[in-house]
Every structure is written in C-alpha cells, then in structure tokens.
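Hi Y.,

Following your request, here is the sequence exactly as I used it, all 84 residues.
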Amino acid sequence: MSERFVDTDKAAAHLAITRRALLDLVRQGHLPGHPLAQGRRRHVWRFKLSELETALSSSGANSIAPTDRRTLRSHKSPITENGQ
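Below is the corresponding structure, written out as tokens. Let me know if you'd prefer a different format.
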C-alpha cells in the first residue's frame, strides 16, 4: 500500500513547527512538498511524512532552520535557553 499524502497542518504538527515555517521551508527548497493546485490566494500543498523525515535526516535540522523568528512562534533553541 502506498503512503498517503497529508495536508500542511498535519505535516507541520508532525515536525513540531508552525504551518508558516513549513511553507517557508518548502518554498525555499529545503523540504519536499507537492503543490496540487493554486487556490484563490495560494497553492494547496500536500506532503508525504516519509519524504519530510528523509529530508531532515539527510540535511540535518540546523541547516534548514528558517531565520525568520516570526515563523518559530512556539520553538526555542535549547542552546539559547541554556545560554550556551
């Protein structure tokens, strides 16, 4: 059985990042995504969780972290929290 596609919300939740952070990473080419159609204002994206996991494990999380802190509302780096 082939893997099903998930929507942006489920993919972002799986990666524990915001929806906006996920879309920014996909648009920058750091993570794989599949645009299905263009809606009224934007593309409709779908994702395969295995592709996201493979992209993260092969490139390392630090190399794809977005630089815009507004996209990381709920995430804090453990390095900055500990002052290291």
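Confidence is low (pLDDT under 50) at residues 66-84.

Thanks again,
Q.
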